[in-house]
Structures are given as structure tokens and as C-alpha cells.
Write a structure and sequence with these properties.
By secondary structure, the chain is α/β, with parallel strands linked by helices. It is built from 2 helices and 8 strands; from the N terminus they run E-E-E-E-E-E-H-E-H-E. The longest helix has 13 residues, at 98-110.
């Protein structure tokens, strides 16, 4: 899906599809951390089933007011205990599928919020 936002002065997601997103028109097929302040880093996770608390702990050390977690091809929640470091720092985390997370990130970033998108990119679902 092509996204046509108003001109944004922050890093934005300009398009997405099964197994990829485009950040400022640069296509990426790996999972990423994407911040409204220009932060962009590959995230070495490709399957929801392989996630662990250690994958979320570093998020609490970053200076964002909210984290949007894109859980892949469908909505799935991590154990609440994994989010304790974020809660201790009063950083909100919202979970949604990755496509919804892309849209939500753009809205919040466009409003000037300090937002981090943590986007899990999985292999596209196979059709029979």
C-alpha cells in the first residue's frame, strides 16, 4: 500500500507491503526500530515466536514517550512482564499488527510526538 501523507519534517513510512516497509522511500525487508527523531536501526528478529524479554529491555533506555510495537502479520501480545522496564520509566507501549503500526507511527510522528516504532517483519503468509 502506498501512503501519501502531507509533507512531514520527520522520518516517515512512505509505503509498506507483505514483508517490507519503505522508510523515506527506502525499501527495507528486515525488522527495524524507527524513531521520529531520525533513529533507524535493524532489529535482529524475524519471528514473533523467537522474541524474548531481552528484545524489549533496551527500549526503556531510549528517550521516547511511546513505543508502537508492530507484531508482524497479525496482532499478538508479548508477556506483560517483558514490558516492566518500560512501565518503570512511564513509557507507553501499544501493540498492533505491523501494517497498523506503520500507519499509527506516521500519525503520531506527524503530530510531533516522540515515538518509536518497533516493527517485526515476517515472511509473507503463504497461500495454497
Amino acid at each position: 500500500m502506498k501512503i501519501q501523507p502531507d509533507h512531514m519534517d520527520v522520518q516517515s513510512i512512505t509505503a509498506y507491503g507483505p514483508g517490507w516497509i519503505a522508510v523515506d522511500e527506502q525499501r527495507r525487508t528486515r525488522s527495524v526500530w524507527l524513531g521520529s527523531d531520525g533513529f533507524l536501526q535493524d532489529w535482529p528478529c524475524s519471528r514473533f515466536e523467537d522474541l524474548a524479554a531481552v528484545d524489549f529491555a533496551p527500549l526503556a533506555e531510549l528517550d521516547y514517550e511511546v513505543v508502537i510495537f508492530g507484531s508482524g502479520n497479525r496482532l499478538r501480545f508479548v508477556p506483560p512482564a517483558w514490558l516492566a522496564p518500560l512501565m518503570a520509566r512511564r513509557i507507553g507501549l501499544e501493540t498492533m499488527d505491523t501494517e497498523a503500526a506503520c500507519r499509527t507511527y506516521n500519525i503520531l510522528a506527524g503530530e510531533g510526538r516522540r515515538v518509536l516504532a518497533v516493527l517485526l517483519q515476517e515472511e509473507p503468509a503463504q497461500t495454497a
